[in-house]
Amino acid sequence: MHFLAFSFGFKDLIDILLVAGLLYEMYRLLRKTGAANLFWGILAFIVVWFLVSYVFQLDLTGALFDRIISVGAIAIIVIFQEEIRMFFYRIGAGFSSWQLFRHRGPEDNGESRQQIMEITQACRHMASTKTGALIVLAGNSSLKEIVDTGERLDAVVSARLIENIFFKNTPLHDGALVIRNGKMLAAACILPVSKDQTIPQHYGLRHRAALGLTEKTDATCIVVSEETGLISVAKDNSIREVKEDELFLLILHSFSAAS
Question: Is 5 within the bounds of a domain?
Answer without folding.
Answer: no
